[in-house]
Design brief:
mainly alpha, about 0% strand, globular
């Protein structure tokens, strides 16, 4: 059994490992109010552990499902974290990066932080991990190069991966602030769309990386309407029919990100840290969509990855205008003006 010294500093470990497993969240979480930093940092690590279980291709489908369910029980406090580590850690392959090996090994430290939170916070984290782990395990069983059946299937996948995270964050924001809590019902609906916009952007950016490992999260129906079969997608030649389908999905993602802006503008302006946390993710997603739209014939994710200079400019600009809804709306219009638009209604867009 892997053990830890009694002097192990869980909070310090959490801050340090965040920098190794996600540069983006290591950048955005410190912008949050102090009362939210630890719980949202911990929430991200719980999601990362869930994701590591799903992503390690050395695990069989049965092992993935069993370990995912087991981790949900660990988060709820019904199974010891040490028992989970003893089962998963020896099975991890080189596909899992060293920082994630370290995170899995130190799951007990992460869970001790989880169990220090209030009941509302713990309920939000437990629900997120439970829904995410079961949903991702279900979709892992359907991974092929054929793509998902249709746009609703893609929506559900995005919900399991990111929409439920948006709901969890909203629960945490509402627990933190009674002022935010007054808008909880509308924020909860928009939070799913926010998460979907970010996840759709990632799916589009990672098309070729996913295909190299035998997966495709694009919806067949969008491309069949253009006369294109996703299994025929190949990096060595571009097809205008595929690019047309890509345009439709960019339009859907753009509308989700517009809902993300609406969500952010509902956060009180004096909560600048929460707004910046949301805006930095939103800004980087919009700029990534712009690159994808400009290079619809790309055949490598590196071709549509935004530069560090662009990231810094996004952080600076959104930070300057973080408290002004009017300025943020104008900024969104300016940066998304060349993106395709979709006729899908908000009613369908916000439906889970």
């Amino acid at each position: 059994m892997i053990s830890q010294s009694q002097n192990f500093d869980e909070a310090r470990y959490q801050n340090d490992i965040l920098k190794d497993v996600s540069r983006t969240f290591a950048l955005t979480i410190p912008q949050l109010p102090e009362a939210l930093r630890q719980v949202i940092g911990n929430a991200y690590l719980l999601c990362r552990i869930t994701d590591t279980i799903e992503d390690d291709n050395a695990l069989s489908s049965a092992q993935t499902r069993q370990l995912s369910d087991m981790f949900s029980e660990v988060v709820c406090g019904r199974i010891a974290a040490e028992k989970f580590v003893d089962e998963l850690y020896p099975l991890l392959s080189d596909h899992t990066i060293p920082a994630e090996h370290d995170l899995i090994k130190n799951t007990p430290a992460v869970i001790r932080v989880t169990h220090s939170f209030n009941s509302a916070q713990r309920n939000a984290l437990e629900r997120c991990v439970r829904i995410m782990s079961r949903g991702m395990a279900d979709y892992q069983d359907t991974e092929t190069l054929d793509g998902l059946k249709d746009l609703p299937a893609m929506n559900l996948y995005c919900y399991y991966v990111a929409g439920v995270v948006g709901e969890m964050l909203t629960e945490l924001f509402c627990d933190y602030s009674s002022e935010i809590n007054r808008h909880k019902s509308e924020l909860m609906k928009l939070s799913v769309s926010f998460g979907q916009g970010l996840q759709m952007t990632n799916i589009l950016k990672d098309i070729w990386d996913d295909r190299r490992r035998g997966a495709c999260w694009l919806p067949q129906d969008i491309f069949l309407e253009k006369g294109f079969i996703l299994r025929d997608l190949h990096p060595d030649h571009s097809d205008i029919r595929f690019q047309d389908g890509l345009s439709d999905l960019i339009g859907v993602a753009r509308k989700h990100l517009h809902n993300a802006l609406t969500y952010t503008c509902m956060i009180p302006p004096h909560e600048k840290g929460i707004r910046k946390f949301c805006l930095w993710a939103l800004g980087m997603a919009i700029l990534t969509l712009n690159k994808i739209n400009h290079h619809r014939d790309f055949n490598d994710g590196k071709q549509v990855k935004i530069t560090r200079r662009t990231v810094k400019a996004t952080i600076l600009t959104t930070s300057i205008f973080a408290t002004s809804n009017w300025a943020l709306t104008q900024l969104f219009k300016m940066t998304s003006r060349n993106l395709p638009e979709t006729e899908i209604s908000d009613e369908l867009l916000l439906k889970k």
